[in-house]
Design goal:
Largest sheet: none
Helix content: over 70%
Number of strands: 0
Number of helices: 3
Oligomer: single chain
Bound molecules: zinc ion
Structural class: mainly alpha
Order of helices and strands: HHH
Number of domains: 2
Shape: rod-shaped
Strand content: under 5%
Length: 155
């Protein structure tokens, strides 16, 4: 047997002996296996957390978009509410009615249910803008239907 082959046989024999007989070496191999397993578990946990994180980031993005849409709707509704409130106030001034209930609520804090048209002073400018042209149209229709001249409106 050549020296090289003798050395190779000796090394193989020693390694086999270490693996099989030496409890410290066995323990070391077991610990290495445990560490490898733990490392694999940790990698799996990290992989799952990354997936969860990605899904949550997507959900946050969707919620941000939904919130932006709701804010836009809120602004539109507030603008619409402001417009309707202003129009209601102008019409009640044009007719001299209660702007809260138009005389339909007996417990109204403004008119106690007496605020029908003419309940308070009529605002001429609003009357001319919102009501007069409608009355003129009614008179013209009446004239056409009955052959009567339209009555002049004095306010
Ligand atoms: Zn009222």
């Amino acid at each position: 047997m050549s020296k090289r082959n003798q050395l190779k046989a000796l090394r193989g024999g020693l390694l086999t002996q270490f693996k099989i007989d030496d409890p410290n070496i066995k323990k070391l191999f077991e610990q290495l296996n445990i560490k490898t397993n733990k490392s694999d578990e940790q990698k799996e946990i990290i992989r799952r957390l990354r997936i969860q994180n990605k899904k949550q980031i997507e959900q946050v993005g969707l919620l941000k978009e939904r919130l932006r849409t709701l804010k836009e709707e809120k602004i539109k509704m507030l603008n619409s509410y402001t417009h309707i409130k202003k129009l209601n106030s102008s019409l009640s001034e044009a007719l001299g009615s209660c702007h809260e209930c138009w005389g339909e609520n007996s417990s109204c804090h403004v008119c106690k249910g007496k605020g029908i048209s003419g309940w308070r002073k009529v605002n001429r400018r609003f009357f001319n803008v919102y009501v007069l042209s409608g009355i003129e149209k009614l008179n013209m229709d009446e004239e056409r239907n009955n052959g009567i001249l339209p009555r002049k409106i004095n306010i």
